[in-house]
Design goal:
By secondary structure, the protein is of the alpha/beta class. It is built from twelve helices and 15 strands. The strands form three sheets. The chain has a seven-stranded mixed beta sheet with strand order 9-10-11-6-12-13-15. The protein has a six-stranded parallel beta sheet with strand order 2-1-3-4-5-14, sandwiched between helices. Strands 7-8 form a two-stranded antiparallel ribbon. A hairpin with a 3-residue loop joins strand 12 (245-254) and strand 13 (258-268).
Length: 339
């Protein structure tokens, strides 16, 4: 695959514009277009990057299959959506890289690497979210509709070797990250594909929010602020206030005698061009796009980020590129008897 035909980014929201920003820094990416619909330009591109919000995200794969263009998809869709269309993707001859953002995305890349490195992994806990140094302030940094939805749907986790379903806000616990009081809860993850492939005893995904967020969210819902007719007004109000912000993930993996902890963090000042979620989300598909256009990713068909994580060259290239963009990434390892 060459970059001659350029890249079409589907979407015009914060993540789409941030992907555009990172691709423009890579002069080998060719022409780049931000598109909100199929206006005929897609047929002239080499690659599609999907960044449409909510249910619109399904259009990204539909257009990729229609025009037979490879797709890097950041849209918030469950793995099951892609798996149901796996045969069509394979027959089309294109490459579809699903869930290529932050979490799912970068986190999956790391999980894929560690699962291939340590087949005896027994426990995984993923925590991810955004906070502000200002106490109790939550920065609404990405698609408002998707953010609201994720707190209203159930999640699947592996507990003591069994897959179990949990309601929103289940498993509440207090947290502290970088001296900021926070809380976390079990959440839908985008890791459902991994749940089916592992023999893990425990696999939990937790979303991180500032202290008091659960109470605030329930207030908004109970007072009708999240109803369809009021959603845009609530969005405009809640997104209008800007504060310094950071987006983080802590990934804890355990074998019988070893514990591994990955920590990821991006940070933005309140008036920066990109917020912390834009940085850590959009830099990933931009890096993957370069690898795909340079023929460093050669797998046809449906590819998940955990699949790419098993390739050492791809894994190292993505992490190196993220660090160059200011994303902090660290890994610590401990023997069980030293904890």
């Amino acid at each position: 695959m060459t970059a001659r035909g350029g890249i079409a980014i589907l979407g015009n929201g914060r993540v789409a514009r941030a992907v555009f920003y990172y691709l423009k820094k890579n002069k080998s990416a060719g022409k780049i277009a931000l598109l909100t619909n199929d206006n005929g330009k897609i047929k002239d591109c080499n690659l599609i990057i999907g960044a449409l919000a909510g249910g619109l995200g399904e259009d990204c794969l539909r257009l990729a299959l229609q025009y037979k263009k490879s797709l890097i998809d950041v849209s918030d869709l469950d793995p099951e959506f892609y798996l149901k269309r796996k045969t069509r993707i394979e027959k089309s001859g294109i490459t579809v890289i699903a869930g290529c953002g932050f979490s799912p995305g970068l986190v999956n890349l790391i999980l894929g690497k560690e699962l291939s490195r340590y087949p005896d992994l027994r426990e995984i806990e993923v925590k991810a979210g955004s906070l502000s140094p200002n106490k109790f302030f939550f920065p609404f940094l990405w698609c408002f509709e998707d953010l609201i939805l994720e707190h209203q749907i159930p999640s699947w986790q592996i507990i003591k070797g069994k897959k179990k379903k949990f309601p929103p806000f289940a498993g509440y616990q207090k947290e502290k990250f970088f001296h900021v009081e926070a809380e976390s809860y079990l959440c839908a993850s985008g890791f459902e594909n991994l749940l089916e492939k592992t023999q893990l005893k425990n696999f939990q995904c937790r979303v991180v929010r500032p202290g008091g967020f659960r109470t605030f969210f329930n207030f908004l819902r109970n007072q009708g602020f999240l109803k369809k007719d009021n959603l845009m007004l609530s969005k405009n109000i809640l997104e209008s206030k800007k504060q310094d912000n950071f987006t983080l993930s802590e990934i804890i993996l355990s074998t019988e005698n070893k514990r591994i902890i990955w920590r990821l963090r991006s940070h933005s000042k309140k008036n920066e061009k990109l917020n912390s979620m834009q940085k850590i989300t959009a830099a990933v598909p931009a890096l993957i796009a370069k690898l795909l256009l340079d023929n460093k990713i050669k797998q046809p068909g449906l590819v998940f980020m955990e699949d790419l994580g098993r390739d050492e060259l791809i894994f190292d290239s993505v992490l190196s590129g993220l660090r160059k963009e200011g994303i902090a990434i660290s890994k610590n390892q401990f023997m069980a008897n030293s904890l």
